[in-house]
Design a protein that fits this description.
The protein has 92 residues and is an all-alpha fold. The protein has three helices and no strands.
């Protein structure tokens, strides 16, 4: 970072704030995913349903903010939904 250029200092400060904010959102998404996988592994259908809803919301929020791409969010949601459907087949 340049010492003389104040605009560069401001830009660096802004990017640092954004980096930390993005990091916290990514961490929240990963935590939700781990909790969802744990509830599916434990064969807890009610908890898994709630966790999947929460994970979907987190991924959509991260995609809307541009922290993860829309395609990456859609891919992760699809994989988690497939895991849920394979573990808890629908009873007709």
């Amino acid at each position: 970072m340049s010492v003389k250029n104040s605009s560069a200092a401001k830009r660096h400060k802004q990017s640092e704030v954004r980096r930390l904010r993005n990091k916290s959102v990514k961490s929240a998404v990963r935590t939700c995913a781990k909790k969802f996988v744990a509830s599916v592994t434990a064969k807890n259908s009610e908890e898994a349903t709630a966790r999947l809803r929460e994970l979907t919301k987190e991924l959509d929020t991260a995609a809307r903010k541009g922290i993860v791409s829309k395609n990456a969010a859609a891919r992760k949601k699809s994989r988690m939904q497939r895991l849920y459907n394979n573990t808890f087949p629908a009873v007709n």
